[in-house]
Specification:
The protein is mostly helical. It is built from 17 helices and five strands.
Length: about 400
């Protein structure tokens, strides 16, 4: 039996493709080959009211579109040399199908390709790129989009849409457009060959540059407000108490963020060792941090001690670090309302305030940078050769925490 005869093509509806809210669904083309299946996107959308009791399309025009989509895929498979097809996996077959449109020109479903890029990533970066792609889908209102549709004008229009939705200075504007630019560049690296002059994908990013993220404005808060947190924490309950306590823990641990507070391992000899989530993929040392639990905050840290090898018990309280952060910030808002503070205070304010307070007590900027575990391109090469003296950073933290009257 020829390999082509073992390939089956069909249009299917999958529950996990449904849009949120309106019940709409998109047809997928299922390619089954060598007992394995893979699904290809289509832009054929259907609502529940357009299906009969057997979930078959009622409208003749819709049935025709579905049949045409299946037929187009079958034609592309027929054009593949049988010997080459015999050697392909189902993934390679789908990739070959996606290389050309109905006119035989190079084609690449950007969203399909983005999936492969995102799947290769883990943790926070994976979520970050997935969110960016989902945002672009929301803007284009498409489940399938050829990479040629990503033009400089489209990117500028999407950027304007993002600004209108999130605000001119929102991080999403630069972060999302940069993520799409990265994925697009990965496609060019794979399918273009500049040495031979074989250019299948044009580069819209020669004419459009994602906006740079403006440095955050100073988000530090007054040291008097932190002292109020220390003084009043025992009077608070529920989410308000959680918000204040986690803020103080973060501040006392040199601005540790919620993802790291949520998942960091239990301390060894009173030192928490972790890899900072935000920058570990961009630093040669994987953003390794050693934070000593200063004696001034240990009594608060101990109240949230974790089990099973974790430093804190937050994973038992909340299913994700995002939910932890939301509850902490809600608690901080409640506390600010209680004391009549009108400024904005979030968990991230702890990080900014630690840096500002460290500078005020005479800590050098280089040490502050190490304490915050930023990505410093100027120091990157030097850091390879110099072994970090964590005790210097710990003494800096002692100076910061000495500004306050801790209630033990």
């Amino acid at each position: 039996m020829k390999a082509k005869n073992t390939v089956t093509v069909s249009a299917v509806l999958l529950d996990w493709v449904k849009n949120q809210g309106n019940g709409a669904n998109y047809y997928r083309i299922r390619i089954t080959y060598k007992r394995k299946s893979k699904f290809m996107r289509t832009d054929i959308r259907v609502f529940p009211s357009e299906l009969d009791e057997n979930k078959q399309p009622i409208d003749r025009a819709l049935r025709h579109r579905i049949d045409e989509a299946v037929l187009e895929v079958e034609k592309k498979i027929s054009a593949i040399d049988p010997t080459e097809l015999e050697l392909m996996t189902v993934d390679e077959l789908v990739e070959e199908i996606n290389k050309t449109d109905h006119e035989g020109k190079f084609a690449l479903d950007f969203y399909e390709f983005a999936d492969t890029v995102i799947e290769a990533k883990t943790g926070q970066p994976q979520k970050y790129y997935r969110t960016a792609v989902n945002s672009l889908k929301a803007y284009t209102k498409k489940e399938k989009m050829d990479i040629s549709e990503i033009s400089s004008s489209m990117m500028r229009e999407w950027e304007a849409w993002l600004r209108a939705k999130y605000g001119n200075n929102a991080r999403a504007v630069s972060a999302y457009t940069s993520a799409i630019a990265f994925i697009h560049n990965q496609a060019k690296l794979k399918y273009n060959n500049e040495e031979t002059g074989k250019i299948r994908i044009l580069d819209p990013f020669k004419y459009y540059k994602p906006p740079r993220q403006k440095p955050s404005k100073h988000r530090n808060i007054e040291i008097e407000l932190i002292q109020k947190m220390i003084d009043m924490r025992s009077e608070l309950t529920g989410r308000e108490r959680l918000g204040v306590d986690v803020f103080l823990i973060s501040f006392g641990l040199m601005g540790m963020n919620s993802p790291d507070l949520y998942s960091c391992q239990a301390p060894e000899k009173n030192v928490i060792i972790y890899n900072r989530t935000k920058t570990r993929s961009r630093r040669d040392d994987e953003a390794e941090m050693h934070v000593k639990i200063d004696k001034s905050i240990k009594y608060i840290v101990d109240e949230y001690a974790g089990t099973g090898g974790l430093a804190f018990d937050f994973c038992k309280r909340y299913t994700t670090y995002q939910i932890l952060g939301e509850n902490v910030n809600a608690g901080l808002r409640a506390f600010c309302k209680r004391i009549g503070h009108t400024g904005r205070v979030t968990l991230y304010s702890a990080r900014h305030t630690w840096a500002t307070t460290a500078y005020e007590v005479g800590v050098g900027k280089e040490i502050i940078n190490d304490g915050l575990c930023h990505v410093d391109r100027d120091m990157k090469v030097t850091d390879i050769y110099i072994k970090k003296d964590w005790s210097v950073i710990w003494r800096a933290n002692e100076k910061v925490l000495a500004r306050f009257n801790w209630k033990q």
